[in-house]
Amino acid sequence: MKFSQRIGKVPSIKQLQIESLDDDLKNGLWNGLKIYVLDNLSKHDNYGNDTEFDVFCSILWHNYYKLPIDTIPKYVSSSEHFIRDTFYKGQWYETYDLIEFIANIDSNSFSIDTSEFKEFCNGILEREFSGYRFINDKISPITNENEIAEIENAINQSDHFTSLRGANIHLKSALEKLSDKKSPDYRNSIKESISAIESVTKVISENAKDSLGAALDKLKGKIKLHPALERGFKQLYGYTSDSDGIRHALMEDHNCDFEDAKYMLVSSSAFINYLIIKANKSGVKFK
Predict the structure, then answer these.
(1) Chain-centre distance of CA 106, in angstroms?
(2) Which segments of the chain have a pLDDT < 50?
(3) pTM value?
């Protein structure tokens, strides 16, 4: 703790930053963008043709700013100044939009390591108590490291097998709908989380027509599923299926919020990880 914090002149605890970026957070993210992206790009010349920085600016102006590419400044310093201005002067979510866009540029075409950039950004986001992290290339409102690990593990595991591709798509969709900073879709995020579990249980039960409840009943003959977990997820499935549930078309959006969707994604990811491990131990092979 700094001297100023110890004597009470500066708060020692920050509020979680959800819809804001303080100077420390914004400066840290900009430093990552400068060090890992802009400085690296401006160093490399593409065999006497356009530099990597020129190509990067063309992509940024065309696909992100959606401005005429002939308005790109002639000098690197001027282009960088323009990028810096938009970074600092935009709304908090526009700053995240820019960071996310750059992190998803094809790094194979440039002399940059976007994985290092995202890792650096996550360090800053954690240090400055942001409510967001990079998960699966998306800046997402997940604040607990264990929750992040469960979601990433479920996405990574389901991506290894063709038979679990459906679950992988549902998990990514649930995360994307939860992560939309302008118009998050919590209702459909929950639907996707439950659909991811359904997809995995159907693969294990070997019947694509099974509901989640029916598939869970069949799992008992294939893997050792704890009765409490089975009951718990059957109850959650009921919550999303009854007349007042998420899947009912007449449900009003205000009945579902961030906490509901976040809980469902984390718990569904954890259950999927559990099912995959249990299935492997019981000799169930995923194709």
Answers:
(1) 18
(2) 46-48, 243-244, 246-251
(3) 0.69
